[in-house]
Fold this sequence. Notes:
Elements: H1 2-9, E1 11-14, E2 21-23, H2 33-69, E3 76-79, H3 80-86, E4 95-98, E5 103-107, E6 110-115, E7 119-124
Antiparallel strand pairs: 1-2, 3-7, 4-5, 5-6, 6-7
Amino acid sequence: MKDEIENELGLTGSCIVCEKKFYGRSxxxxxGVRCKNQYHNTNTVRNTKLIRSVNYLLRKNRNILYTLxxxxxxxxxxxxxxxxxxxxxxxxxxxxxxxxxxxxYYCYDYQYIVIxxxxxxxxxxxx
Length: 127
């Protein structure tokens, strides 16, 4: 009996946020703008948390490279441990260039080359 009443009223589904019954198109997912906005805002927050955390780590790496080179464009060689102690995370880079001679890692406008197991050469690129 309840289903017959709902069919006569034209109720077509229930909201995926609040589960309230509504009428409208058969493919409608939300009862109104409030639930639609809540759903999309919740999903956007989830997706941007990862992006924010990665961008934070990339900016941190770039700031460490800037500090260690005093913002100069000349190449500077230092021990790998100096970067690690400063908090540099070698797993976060913006790009990599692999050639037969060497592998160059980039973090925004800085590049670094790992020399052996203990040395790193850092250089700021022209923008």
